[in-house]
Every structure is written in structure tokens, then in C-alpha cells.
Amino acid sequence: MKTLYPFAVILSLSFVLSSFNKAENNIDSHKKTSTVATVYHHSDADVDAISNDFFKRYSDLKKYKSDVMSLYKNRTLGTIWFDEDDINEFGTVLYEKAKKTNDLIIPYQKEIDELFSTSETKLSKTDADMLLSSLYIAYAKKSIADTKKKVSYDAMLKDFLNYSTIEEATATTSADAANVKVEYDQYYKLQDVLKKYKKIERSNKWKPIVPEETPYKELRPDAVSSTITQVRTRLYLLGDLKNDSKSNVYDRELMDAVMKYKVRNGFKPNYILAEEHIKEMNVPLSDKMETLKLNMERCRAISALIASSDEYVLVNVPSYELVYVKNGKVQMTSSVFVGAPLTKTTIFNGEIDRIVFSPYWTVPQSIVNNELKGKIAENKNYLAEKNMEMVNGQVRQKPGPDNSLGLVKFMFPNPDDIYMHDTPSKTLFDFEKRTFSHGCINVKMAKELAVAMLKDYPEWTQAKIDKAMEGKTENSFKLAKKVPIYITYFTSLVNENGEIGFFQDVYEKDTESTTEKTVTLN
């Protein structure tokens, strides 16, 4: 898209509008900020007094006064360059672009530099905002002078009303992409987290956690360590803790925060702080943000049908989790385990058309060749002992509680012969990394899923389901309405509670995407 100025970021004033919208929703909180006098909620006389005072104290900016005040004219929505008490991303873009502009003298550079440094500034928010507006005018005038074009600031704002975030303006690959609505709402949830992480990055409060002891020793409740203090600060920044007491004692408050952190990130739910948890907490924010962006792109790629489906099953491989949604609400979730790296679970969409109770398991020929032939040769009773039989040259396991498919399986036709099923190996769900299968999806709460999916079939009472699962005779039921299933690969997801989770890149697809991106750029 062709812009009027090389200030690609003149778009930032469009972005200003989105931050205005946010500020409008929080107008009361702005009014309550005692340390900030604003120019937005006063009479014309008050506004004149405030502006006269500002430009008297910053006399070198008087030549910009008319243009600066035009930015605030008729606006009642708060500061331009701030979100609450922090400079927003638009202000950061302006500052970086201004510094890189040849021959541009940044007015009151020392004061403006302090706004973006780790040191605290003595400026009020009003002074800081008007200084940045003055910098914007200086930058814009430099750009106008270079291009010999004129600009109306109000008109410019209107020109870019279609942009709502800096991501849409700078991260898309085409003009069309910026205007395409992503149907899967997870995209916008991840986008909100990305904004939060950018804000944390700008605060300069994200510091590496340096363990007190080397080699690292696991920390448990009641431990006393400087590492605990650092972990506490980290979990406060991430939102798992409401307050940062700075205490070095692993107390009840921190225990709850650690548990919250572990659950949302797919770790085993306990209070132990192992070295792997510290390493994960120390992943740079820049890496986390790249992961968020990558998964936002995966949201673009997922079928738009997911938004219009009133019922579906979603299995996410990296988080080892299944979610069953009906009538727009999550009905249940379940842990799963998936294919090992050499027998990966295929990422695709399908439709569940049958539920099979007390299923036979026809053993894949590859397993027969690689695993069973030797055992059968050593023990002629092996098949009988394992409740197996030979039928038409194929080995199959009879229904029963020890059947490898458990008591129920869910079928959705696909060329890779992938399906979901129960399993007798329940202890495998206790592992954090659950890549054990030959490609199929093993569901911990398979019985509960079957019950939930059959609620619209009155003939399938609980008693009938229980009898069908007794493991004596295979019983296949064809669904009158097929249920969409999405097998996905999201290494970051926002849960129902609005909490972000980051998960292992178990099949190294993130690494592949990053490598492809690097190769393309080079």
C-alpha cells in the first residue's frame, strides 16, 4: 500500500486511534490519576492555560504549538503516546524512526531519551505526551520537506482509520492481508497477549533469573533463596501473582502462583521448581513474541469452518490436550498422548462419523513384523495370552479391558488411518511429554467424550453405553451428524480463562518455520 510519507509510521497516528478507543473505555481511571494533568477534559480556557504553560517551559517547541494542539483538538479520549503509565508501541516506533532519520534534530532529546531508558523520568505524563507529539510534528515536517508534500493531520488520521493495531500495519505481507478477518478467535486472543508482552518488554523489568546455587538444586515449599525472589518477580510480571512482596521465602502465595504457571504451560502440577522450569522462565521475551506471531499465522491457516461449527473436537498436539466444544461452549477437556517423533500424528481436519464400543484392534503389519513375530516364535501361546487371534492372515486383539484401544474408539476417515481411542495405559498420562503412540490419539477421558457426544441420541442411555463398553462384543454406531475434528499444532494457546500457555515444539515445526523464514529473507 502506498503511503503519503516515508513515515511508514505515520500510520502510528491511526494506531493512536486504537489506543484512544482503549482509553475511552478506561476514562474513569485516567481521571483518577492524581499525578497527571491532561489537556483533554478541560474548558478551552483551561486547555489554553495548560498549553501556554507547557510551551513556555519548553520554549524551543513554540514553533510546533499550533500543529501539536491540532492533534489534541476535539479529543476527549486520553493521551496519544501512552497506555496507562507506559509508553505504547506507537511511541516506541516514533522514537526509533526519529533516531534513524538523517539531519533530524530531536527537540529536548535528553528528556525524551530518559522516557525510553531504564532510568526514571521526572516528567509528568502530560509533559511526556506533548513532548512526543512535538517530536512527531518535527519528524513529520522533516518527512514533508523531503517529499515536498503537504499534510492535514486530521485528514491523515481519518485516512488510516481502518488500521487497529501496529501488527496489522507492519507485520502483514500484503494490503489485502491486513483487511482479512481471521475466523478463529484464538488469533485475537494471542494478539492481546502479544501486546501485553511488548508492554513488559518496554518496561525493562524482564531480567534473567540467576540461580543462587550452582549446580542448581530443586526448590520446594518453605525454601529460602534469592532465586525465589526472582521467580516471584517473574510470575508477577506474567500475571500469575497479584503482588510482588520481594520475599525470598517459598510461601503459600508463591505455591499457588507456581501451580498456576505450571498448569497453563503443560508442566506436571506440583510445587517443585526444577531447573527446567527456571530455563523456561528465562526464555527471552523476543522468542516468546515470535512464538505468538507464528501461532497467530497458524490461526489464519486453520479452516474457517471452525468459527461456524456448533460442535467440534480440537486436539492440540504440543499441549497434549483435547477440547470438545458444543453450542459455542467447552463441554469437556481431556489429556491425550500422541505419535512419537518417528510416527508423528498427522495434522489435519476430518469428521468423526462413527463411535465404536469394545473395539477389536487389528495390529498394523509393521508392528507384527517388527515386534510380534519374534515373540510368537518364542512362545506359541503368545497370541492367546494377549487375547489375540489370527484372522485372514492378520493379527487382531479381541475386545476387553486390556485391549490396546481400550473400551471405545472414534473414527474419522483419512488416508493415514489415524483415529482416537481409549487406552488401558492410564499411567502414561502422568508424563509431561506424551509422545508414545504409533500415530493415533490416545484419550484419557474417552468414555466421558463418548457420553458427551451421544447426549443428542436419546437411545444411548448411560446404561446402554456402560453395557456397550463391557468389552465382550464390538458395537459400532454411525453418527447421524458428523462431528468435525481439528488436529492442530499450536505451541502457544490462550485458554478459557484468558491465560496463555507455551508448549514444547515436540515435532520441531516451530524450528522448521523459523528456518524457512530465514532462508526466504536471505
Automatic annotation (TrEMBL):
Pfam families: YkuD. This is L,D-TPase catalytic domain-containing protein. InterPro entries: LD-transpeptidase_YkuD-like, LD_TPept_cat_dom, Transpep_catalytic_dom. GO terms for biological process: cell wall organization; peptidoglycan biosynthetic process; regulation of cell shape. CDD domains: YkuD_like. Pathway: Cell wall biogenesis; peptidoglycan biosynthesis. Belongs to the YkuD family. Gene3D superfamilies: L,D-transpeptidase catalytic domain-like. Residues 1-23 form the signal peptide.
